[in-house]
Write a structure and sequence with these properties.
Layout (H helix, E strand, L loop, with lengths): L1 H26 L7 H20 L5 H14 L2 H13 L3 H29 L1
């Protein structure tokens, strides 16, 4: 059953990512910077940090929500495509900002929300 719940959670995460991405693209259609992917990955890092801090390592919710929902919600593949595109188009400043905000921001948010999860739960 855990595989089924994980798959359902992954579908929900993917649908939410699509909804957020479409909403941001509508309001920032002129922007050439991947704001939606940054937001999605930062939210995913924070959420996974909170979850990981709140539950034990063997808890089924870590698999269902962590692997399923956050695995479907966040997107390393799109991050890679956006990064490679900026590199090929020689948008070095944008690429550096994208890499820094995504990687350092995700690590910081995960760590901060992990601590919050440990203290709250």
């Amino acid at each position: 059953m855990i595989v089924f719940y994980t798959a359902v959670a992954g579908g929900i995460g993917s649908a939410l990512r699509f909804f957020i991405s479409q909403s941001i693209q509508k309001t920032h259609s002129h922007a050439r910077f991947p704001y939606s992917i940054i937001l999605i990955n930062l939210l995913g890092a924070a959420g996974l940090g909170l979850l990981t801090g709140a539950v034990t390592a063997n808890h089924p919710l870590l698999v269902i929500i962590g692997t399923g929902f956050f695995g479907g919600f966040t997107t390393f593949s799109t991050f890679s495509v956006e990064s490679a595109t900026m590199l090929m188009q020689r948008q070095i400043r944008q690429l550096a900002a994208y890499l820094f905000v995504t990687i350092i921001g995700s690590l910081c948010l995960f760590t901060a929300f992990y601590q919050i999860g440990q203290h709250l739960f």
